[in-house]
Amino acid sequence: MARKVVGFGEDDLRALAGVRSFERGQGYLDAVSGLEVGDGSVTAVVHGTDVYEVELTLGGGEGISGWCDCPYGQEGNFCKHCVAVGLTVLRRAKTIPHQRAAARARASGLEAWLSELSRDELLALVRQQIAEDRRLRRRLELRAAAARSDLGTVRDRILALIDPRPFVRYGDVEYADAPGYAQQVAEAAAALRALSAHGRAAHAVGLAEEAIRLLGEAYGEIDDSDGVVGEAAAAVAEAHLEACGVARTDPERLAEWLVGQTVGDSDGVTDLDPLDYAEVLGPSGLARLRQLAAEARRRRPSGWAERHLVERLVKAEGDVDALVALYTQDLDPSGATHLRIAEELESAGRADEALVWAERGLREYAAETHVDGRLVDYVCARYANAGRAADVVAVRRDRFRVERSLPAYQQLRSAAQAVECWEGERASALATLAEDARRERGGWYGGPVLIDALLDDGDLDAAWRDAAGRADDRQWERLADLSCETRPGEALDVYRRLVEGAKEPTGDRAYERLARLLLGARDCHRALGTEEAFTEYLARLRTELKRRRKLMTILDRCGL
Q1: What is the rounded distance in angstroms from the CA atom of residue 91 to the CA atom of residue 84?
Q2: 443 — pLDDT class (breaks 50, 70, 90)
Q3: Residues 240 and 192 sit within 8 Å (Cβ to Cβ)
Q4: With contact defined as beta carbons under 8 Å apart, do 209 and 257 qualify?
Q5: Which of 415, 418, 469, 423 lies closest to 447 in space, CA to CA?
Q6: DSSP tag of 51
């Protein structure tokens, strides 16, 4: 019933907060006060370590989201205070419709009261508010300056809002101060839009460009982990675009500015896309944009920003051949560029050409150890769709012979099993890996890939045979884990040896691994019927390491 009234339930709160925060939130029910319910939101105050403001947004059938100004909530988490307010709402679900109706009545009453006030009474009210609310005063000052065409004041105020120095501590704007700075940047964006609305769009263009430059210079010194400054800066960019459209900015000058922003040294805080300005630029501006982008690419062929801009412009024209020609100028040795070409051609309905390009990438970089796996997958998927299963096996075989890795082995196995030829392919692949093991060629994690392949196949007898003198500790541990029941004595020897080596390292991860090894040893003793021997062994070990209290806690938690 409560869910039907408010649009969410306890399960939603638990899913958003996690079990731990949900349980903590249950302890804060008596700390919630000032609950106010509106049509689409709930606000309240929660008294915790400090007094925190909470707002829950009720999305009808789309669930619930929450915001809290506690440190954990400011990181974007649905905190225990949000949980407490949500639970309070659920417990008062029967009164919610009445509270919403009361909120609407209050809003209506306020509107009616304001309408009845005289001009002098309204002015007095506004003066009182701006005396008490600095942000409101600042916003109204900007609007007044814009309305009076006091451009000097508007410029000074906007640049003051963009200036991050009042928020700088220890050399930069810290995470906790970023939202406050973002609020100022958003106010600057609103002022720029107001300037355009009052017939000063041309001035708004220049001011927005100056603001964007300053933001770019400052952004590297701001901890914008939540992206709030980036969002506010994007609003400044939107105000610039809007002003350009109203002012009918010179398209060629605009093109020059856009290219400078895109390939310049700024931090890209606004993430400008020149193509958003296509309508403002018109044919002449777009032509100038393409010309300048090409010149920038010639000056710095290896520049990522230059290459990306040219690609975006060519792609926007819809000329696939021109895009392919551009890609071919800088082919990546991993085959990634060949894949991009293939995907573009396939999107254009030219699947045969796409496959030719993908195959070319595999041929040209056949000897490379690290070829983009997506390119290999692309070719194999097209072969499989065409009923060319044998060719899929051939591609996977060729890649395995070059890479000699467990993933390549697994992919070869899947392909070969699909056409029932894995037995022969496996023998050949294992022979290759055995030769690598004899040459002491290790895998990605240190030990021979041969041991990983045998373990992955479940061939434990072969793994035990080939592990001696070759396997690393990771592989020995995995082999022991898989052999507790079938070879408990041999597995126990492995665990005992690994435990000796694991006693020296400290820290949570080391202690967790030691506990894991001891659990494996206990399983072996149980399989052997020698549990008393393990009890004595564990007692000696605990006595030896008793000063490591964190280790003792972890062992206790694991029943050791």
Answers
A1: 11
A2: very low
A3: yes
A4: yes
A5: 469
A6: E
The pTM of the whole model exceeds 0.85? no
Angstrom distance (rounded) from CA 188 to CA 195: 11
CA angle 342, 345, 348 (to 5 degrees): 150
CA dist., res. 139 & res. 36, Å (int): 27
Give the span between the Cα atoms of 378 and 349, in whole angstroms. 16
Contact status, residue 496 vs residue 479, Cβ threshold 8 Å:
no
Q: pLDDT (tens digit, 9 = 90+) per residue, 207-237? A: 999 999 999 888 888 888 878 888 888 889 9
Distance CA 387, CA 384 (A): 5
Instruction: State the amino acid at position 391 in one-letter form.
Output: D
Both tokens assigned to 103: 């909120």
Query: Residues 81, 83, 87, 90: what is their CA dihedral angle, to the nearest 10 degrees?
Result: 120
The pair of three-digit structure tokens given for residue 81, joined into one six-digit string: 């205070």
Determine whether 254 is exposed, middle or buried from the number of CB atoms within 10 Å of its CB (0-12, 13-18, 19+).
Answer: buried
Q: 446 falls in which pLDDT band (50, 70, 90)? A: low
Please give the structure tokens belonging to residue 310.
């040219």
Q: Are 100 and 38 in contact (CB under 8 A)?
A: yes
* pLDDT tens profile 346-369: 999 999 999 999 999 999 998 888
Are the beta carbons of 221 and 168 closer than 8 angstroms?
Answer: yes
Cβ(331)–Cβ(337) below 8 Å:
yes
C-alpha to C-alpha distance for 351 and 373, rounded to whole angstroms: 20
Cα–Cα distance between 291 and 308 in angstroms, integer? Answer: 15
Instruction: Please report the DSSP string for 6-50 in residue order.
Output: HS--HHHHHHHH-HHHHHHHHTTGGGEEEEEE-SSEEEEEEESSS
